[in-house]
Amino acid sequence: MQTRPHQEGSREGNGATPRSLLGQTPATNFIVGLLAINAFIVLVAIRSPERLSVERIWSMTLLSTRGLFDGGKIWTIATANLFPAGSPLGLHLLLQLVILLWLGRAVERRLGTIDTVILHIGAALFTSCAFLLLDWKGVHGVLGGGTGLIFAVIACAAVMAPRERMLDGVSLPVPLWVIGVVLVALELAMRSRSHDLPVVTPAELWAPMGGLAWGVAFARLPLGLDRFRDHRRRTDWRRRQLDGDTRKGQSVDSASGR
Q1: Which of the pair, 22 or 18, is modelled with greater confidence?
Q2: What DSSP line would sit under 59-118, residue for residue?
Q3: Residue 245: φ, ψ to 5°
Q4: Cα gap 144→222, rounded to integer Å
Q5: What is the CATH number of the domain that holds 79?
Q6: Number of CB atoms found within 10 A of residue 246's CB
Q7: pLDDT classification of 256: cutoffs 50, 70, 90
Q8: Which of helix, strand or coil describes residue 191?
Q9: DSSP state, 168?
């Protein structure tokens, strides 16, 4: 996955100081830090003598239909995508962090920081909306965890560079879109067999597909700021080209009519 020229850390011959890989991906680093910090907070609360402390955290951060419409907890539309709905220990959290640190950074270097922020905000909104649509009857389900954000990153990377076989200097055994499908299936399998929740409802399981749909749309359409500007520039160039061809045709017609 190639980066845009203006996003590279340095260019040959311009004397610029090379930036580290971490410096190129502030949005992804921020999301990784939030997930890790929130997981630590939940872990400490779970292991505290008073279990009520973690119940308070979950009631104020996880999204539920009743909590949103009856309790007015609008902020949970965003916070539910950053707080784990159970014990944060295990391979599931590790897999999510690895995906963000690997694919997430590559996507941010391709899109830029602003568009990456838009990607994650849209993924959180679409995931939460998908959960509310699936749980419209108000079943006792809650949405938690960053799976929707992960799905958006995977989908965006796979759609932008589906046949990519080299990513951040690592040779891929199969095209990137195949790896994306495998990662999505693995995430869903871990989510469905999660030991964090006693029962995983269909709304909790399939809500992250909203983030997946947003990631596909974001990669295909000029939804980001930079991509919108590029689209406008291309559209303006084509319009000027068509106008020039039209004027040339009119000039030829007028000349032939004389």
Answers
A1: 22
A2: HHHSB-HHHHHTT--TTHHHHTTTS-SS---SHHHHHHHHHIIIIIHHHHHHH-HHHHHH
A3: -65, -40
A4: 29
A5: 1.20.1540.10
A6: 10
A7: low
A8: helix
A9: T
Write the burial class of residue 147 (CB in 10 Å: 0-12 exposed, 13-18 middle, 19+ buried).
buried
Answer yes or no: is 256 within a domain.
no
In the chain, the number of structural domains is 1
Amino acid at 43: L
Read off the tokens for 164. 């990519």
pLDDT digits (tens, 9 = 90+) for 200-217: 788 888 999 999 999 999
Q: Is 166 helix (H, G, I), strand (E, B) or coil?
A: strand
Contact between 196 and 124 (Cβ < 8 Å): no
State the pLDDT at residue 224: 67
Instruction: Note down the domain range covering 160.
Output: 22-241
Q: Determine phi and psi for 139, rounding to 5 degrees.
A: -65, 155
Nearest Cα neighbor of 47 from 95, 88, 90 is 88
- Choose the weakest-confidence range: 4-8, 102-106, 126-130: 4-8
Q: Which residue has the higher pLDDT, 2 or 75?
A: 75
Give a yes or no: residue 196 inside a domain.
yes
Q: Distance of CA 64 to CAs 9, 133, 230, Å?
A: 42, 11, 39
Q: Which two tokens stand for residue 152?
A: 């958006």
Would residue 251 count as lying in a domain?
no
Best mean pLDDT range from 11-15, 57-61, 139-143: 57-61
Query: What dihedral do alpha carbons 21, 22, 25, 26 form, nearest 10°?
Result: -160
Residue 258 lies in a domain: no
pLDDT at 150 over 80: yes
> 103 falls in which pLDDT band (50, 70, 90)?
very high
d(CA 195, CA 193): 6
DSSP-assigned letter for residue 143: B
